[in-house]
Structures are given as C-alpha cells and as structure tokens.
Write a structure and sequence with these properties.
By secondary structure, this protein is mostly helical. Helices cover 56% and strands 0% of the residues. The termini are far apart.
C-alpha cells in the first residue's frame, strides 16, 4: 500500500485494472466472491466516484501528512462497518455528506 500511495502521482496515469491486477498478484490476494453490485437496484457509481468518498473520509479523519499514518488510517476505514455501508448501494449511506460519514466513522455508529 505504501508503494502505491507514494507512487500515486505516476500510477494514476496507468490503467486502473492493470495496477489492481499487479497489486493483487504482488500480495497473493485469493479469488473470492466480492460482488456487491449484483443485487443493486440502482445505478452503481463508478470506482472514481466511490474512491472520492473514501478519499474524503480518510482526509477528514486523519489530516496528518505522514505516509505511514495515512496508510494505517486507510486500513482502518476500509476494515470498518462504514466501508460496508458505503458499498451497500441500495441504501442512502453512500450519498450522505462527508461530515455525516466522518461523524459516523468517529462515533462508530450510524447517527439518526
């Protein structure tokens, strides 16, 4: 992750599928069933749009510029219940404003 983050200024010009495949192979990530789109009733946002939601959340909860801390925060966000909620496109959580998503992450619960 640190390699991808520190080289993002170059890698963003690459085809995302090839960067992902290289990373998957490098980390020996096993094939699984990760289809969160099949049951979706609505149009699924593209990965750039979804990535923006995660990027804003990571920036909001950890404004530190230290690469190691940013990577640690990235893993915390992606392994949290908030990530699962963002990826459930039949709900409105993904579409909430960034402050709401940040507060949900920080309080570890969905705010009514």
């Amino acid at each position: 992750m640190k390699r991808i983050y520190t080289h993002s200024d170059v890698l963003h010009c690459e085809v995302i599928d090839s960067v992902a495949e290289e990373f998957i192979n490098m980390c020996s990530i096993k094939t699984g069933d990760f289809d969160n789109v099949a049951k979706c009733k609505y149009e699924v946002p593209d990965y750039w749009t979804i990535g923006e939601v995660y990027e804003r959340l990571i920036e909001d909860v950890q404004p530190n510029e230290n690469v190691d801390i940013i990577i640690e925060t990235l893993f915390k966000v992606y392994n949290s219940w908030v990530s699962d909620s963002i990826s459930r496109f039949n709900t409105d959580f993904y579409y909430q404003n960034r402050e709401y998503i940040k507060e949900c992450f920080l309080t570890n619960k969905q705010i009514a």
